[in-house]
Each structure stands twice: as C-alpha cells, then as structure tokens.
Design brief:
The chain is built from 16 helices and 11 strands. The protein is α+β, with helices and mostly antiparallel strands. A 6-stranded antiparallel β-sheet has the order 3-2-1-6-5-4, sandwiched between helices. Helix 3 runs antiparallel to helix 4, helix 4 runs antiparallel to helix 5 and helix 6 runs antiparallel to helix 7.
Length: 487
Amino acid sequence: MVSVLSNGVTGRLAGWLFLAAGSTVGLSLFLPMPGTVNRAGTLALCAVGIGIGIAAIRAPWDDWPRSRTLLLVPVAFGMIAVGGLFVFEVVQYSYGIFWMLAFTWVGLGHPRWTSARIAPFAAVGFIIPIINFTDDWAVSIRTTAIVIPSAVLIGEVLAWISHHLEEAEKRDTAHIESQRVLLSASTTLAYQVDYDTASYLAARMSGELLGSAASMVFLAEDSGLKGIGSWPEPVEESLIDGPEVEDLLSAIREDRCMHLPADQASQIRDLMSVASMFIVPIRGAGDPIGAIALGFMDETHQLDEFELDIARTFATQVGLAFERVWATQSLLDDSLRDELTGVGNRRHVSALLGNGQPGDAIVMLDLDNFKEVNDTLGHSIGDEVLHAMGSYLRNALRDNDSVARYGGEEFLLLLRRAGSGGVAKAQELLEGWRRTNPVVTFSAGVAIHDISATPLGTVKKADAALYLAKSRGRNQVCSAMDSVAVA
C-alpha cells in the first residue's frame, strides 16, 4: 500500500478530473471569446478528455498495479499543454490551475518523490504554450520556475501526508491485532490447569505476540532463575546463576523491563541463541514470580512503548495463570492427601487404580497387630506409627511409584512396570522398615496387573495374598501366586 487511496479510487479520481476539465472547458467555449481561439480544436480536445474520463471511471483499476495509473500522467500533461496552445489567450491567468490539479492527484495517489520525478516533463509541457503566446523567454522561464515547483511542492506534501496516514493506519491495525492476540492468549492461559502446559504456552504466546525469534519463561528462586518453558525449541529445565542474575532479579523485584544488547554477556541469551534480548518481569497478585525472556536475531531490535505495555500486560496474565494453576494443584493435592500420613487418601486410590497399566504391581500392606498399639500405648502413639509409615514409604519408593492409605492401618502401593519384581521390591521395603526399629512390623500381598483383569480384580488378588501373609504369621510378603497355590 503506497497511499491512503486505493488503486480503484486513484484511477477513478483521475477519470473524474478528466471529465470535469473537459466539460468545464467545453462549456466555456460557448462564452464570448477572441476570434483567435481555436474553438474546433479545443472542442475536439474536450471531447477526447471526456472520453478518457469515462473510460478511466469504468476501468478495473483494482485488478491492475498502482503504477498503471501513472500512464494517465503524460496524457494529462499533453492535453493541458495542447489545450494551452489552443486557448492560452483566454486561460492565461488560470492556466497554472490545471497543473496544480494534476500534481494534487499525483500526490494523493502515489508514493513520495513521484511528483519530483515527473517535474521536468511538466516544466516542458507548461512552458510551450507560454512561449508560443508571448515569445518572451524570460517571462516563460520565470512563470515556469514559480508554478511547477509550487505544484511539485503540493504533490510532495500530499504524498508525505498520505504516507504518514498509511503508517498510522498500519500501526493502528497492528495494535488492534496485538490486542486481539493478547485477549486470546490471556483467555487460553486462564483455562490451564497443568503447570507444564501453562509454562510452554506462556513462552510460545509471548514469542508470537511480540514477534521474537525465541522466548523462555523463568521462575525466580533464591539460587537464581529456573527455566521452566521455552519456544520454539524445547530447552531442558535449567538454573541460571552467576553475576548477571543479580541484575535480573533486581529488575524483577522492581518490576522493571531490561534490554540486554548483543555486547552484554548473558547465559540466557546464549541458551536461546539470539542476538539481543528483553527481560519482562512476571507478576501475579502478590510478589514477583519470575520473568519472560524475549530473544531477537537483530542486534539493534527495540520494543516501542506499546509493545512494552503489551508485554507487561501479558506477563501479568502469565503470573496470574501460574498462581491459579498452583492454587488448583494445591487444592487437588489436599483433596487427595491423607492428612495424618501425608500419602494419598482413599480418593487417591481410585485415581491410581484408574491409571493402572499391565505389568504394574499392586501391593496391599497392613501393619501387624496395630490394634494392640492403640490399646496398650494409646492412639497418639498409633498415629505416630501411621505417620512414620507414610513418611517411610514416600521416601523409599521410586518417583513414578505411588502410595495411598487404603483405610485404617492399610496402605496400597502401585509400583509402575515392576512386574514379577514387585514381590522383591515389597520384601525390600519390609526389610528397610525393620531396620528402623519400628513399634510394629507389616505384612504385604503383591499382585501383578494384567490386561485381562480389572484394577479392582488385581486389588482383590493382592488382598488375598496379604491375608495369606497374615495367616502365615505376619511380618512377611506373599504374592498372588502363593495364594492361588494355597487355594
């Protein structure tokens, strides 16, 4: 786009100017005029101008490139010059107006410097009728030196205004689009309940929103900045520390954006493989949370005030989204955690069983003679034993294994892909528990979940194995295969 006027409007406007000029001059021929005026030639020229105007109004300019409208310029210049030869005696005082109108059209519909480039051709066309009428070169040159530069000035001023209106329109359009994207991104973040997904979306959306080549999301910690999400390439979770972090943490605490140019050392910029970088603090409802790093390949890239406002607004939405995710996760964890033992509760058991896969080992574990502990030592000691058992199991299991309190002094363990090794793992847990010199031991039953069984069916097998361990004297582990053999 080179003008606030479209191709169609520019072409049709030229057509109306041809039509108006031809009609006006043609009608003026019926007024009293000197006998030296070439009425027939002027009338024919007016008819040609009207015809060109009608054709220009009807032409499909929108389907053609903008440069094609400039073909009308030599036609207009030629007709004005010829018309001047025919009727200069009559129009000598208004002759320059036609040239002013031509340059006004050029300035409105074409890029800057177009008027200046066509000025020499206009000067030639302008001076010919004057020389023909006066035969005085000094007057002709002086008049041309006044009118043509003035016409060019009008054209260039209008082109300059048109250019700046176009740039303003582009900025406004870009701002509206940025606000639309910001609203969409904020809405998407508001629905996130998963921390990892929210981190990735925050990185991706910030990069797309501000046109960066790469972006990363960091959380502020005592030891530095912890990277939790990146775009477009995934980056392993990492901790950024060192001297630069102090300045970054200070900017985050002060809610201040930072620009890191190419000549300033930065671990984060090296990690993102970019030339320059902006750090935008992430704030939630309370204290600062972290920052978004926006990386650009251009060493001199800058964010204007509007872009910085967009970045700050989005970073705030990211902070609020993180706080919502954390709050939701905390509530979810509380609803699935047994308050006394710190492990999952019966509701958590249902979730675990729903996620069971073939090859997982389910262990039913029960504290031996626990009722005697409550009866002889008191319920407070019994609670301490349950709490100790919960802590022991949490620390002894692998990261992908799970434990929940099934009820009373009974616990359910889900050992992922343990298979036949589930019995050995349960035995290892029992031996480790014994080494803590506990008040009571425990018995356990193990069953391997297979594709033909339901999770509840596997639990029943593990429970049967637990019953067998109890009947054999407690303080031992039995497998579902043992209970089948006994049966």
